[in-house]
Amino acid sequence: MDPLPNSAPLATKLRNTLIQYHNIGDSEWRLAKKTKDATVWRKPSEEFSGYLYKAQGVVEDVTNRIVDHIRPGPYRLDWDSLMTTMDIMETFEENCCVMRYTTAGQLWNIIAPREFVDFSYTTSYEDGLLTCGISLDYGEVRPNFVRGFNHPCGWFCIPLKDYPSHSLLTGYIQTELRGMLPQSAVDTAMSSTLANFFSDLKKALKT
Predict the structure, then answer these.
(1) Recorded GO terms, molecular function (predicted)?
(2) C-alpha of 205 from chain center
(3) Burial class (CB in 10 A: 0-12, 13-18, 19+), 66
(4) β-pair type (128-135, 114-125)
(5) What digits encode the pLDDT tens for the residues 31-86?
(6) C-alpha closest to that of 41 among 196, 145, 187, 168
(7) How many CB atoms lie within 10 A of CB 59?
(8) Among 17, 61, 79, 81, who pairs with 152 as Cys (CB 3.0-4.6 Å)?
């Protein structure tokens, strides 16, 4: 188990990596799924042998409220159907923490429940916010869970210029689920999970 990293350099590196992803040209992405709530694309990840996913949709709410529902905190467990538990293990400052969370089984439990320990950082970006994270090798792995690993991930939430009460939400996700899994099952699950994330989030914000 590694010691906790110094939060400031890790936060800066993470933010810079996410901005790099945000600047990847449209031609590099391949469409993976499209629903009324979101569009999901993917490209081979440079971090591991799976894919980097990009998910985007317009959400009818202000930026701060949307990000409060996504980042570690009391809202996330209420609406995210995939997340089953969440604990803040360490807090560095108000916008920076280490959290441990577990996810439900997927695809008729072909993908068993997973546990993640992530460093999470939320910061301003242009007129909106960026909330991002990366997994750490920290804390004991609990029995009955496979420890997954999130390579740099994050969500940009920017108010629409002509409709400031609406926001453009763009996520970059690259999750290594680990364990003995067929990659095709993981890829199917990821596209659907990201599309469902948008529809679940929109429902939560309306309540």
Answers:
(1) cholesterol binding; cholesterol transfer activity
(2) 18
(3) buried
(4) antiparallel
(5) 999 999 999 999 999 999 899 999 999 999 999 999 999 998 889 989 998 899 99
(6) 187
(7) 21
(8) 17
Collapsed DSSP state (helix, strand, coil) of residue 183: helix
CB atoms within 10 A of CB 136: 22
Instruction: List the alpha helices (DSSP H) in 23-155.
Output: 63-70, 74-79
- With CA atoms as reference, report the closest residue to 146 among 114, 116, 176, 105: 114
pLDDT digits (tens, 9 = 90+) for 17-37: 999 999 999 999 999 999 999
DSSP state of 89: E
Phi-psi region of 68 (alpha: psi -120 to 50; beta: other; left: phi over 0): alpha
Q: Which domains does the chain have, with CATH numbers?
A: 7-205 (3.30.530.20)
Q: With 80 as the cut, is the pLDDT of residue 185 above it?
A: no
Strand partners, 118: 99, 135
Q: Considering the entire predicted model, what is its pTM? A: 0.93
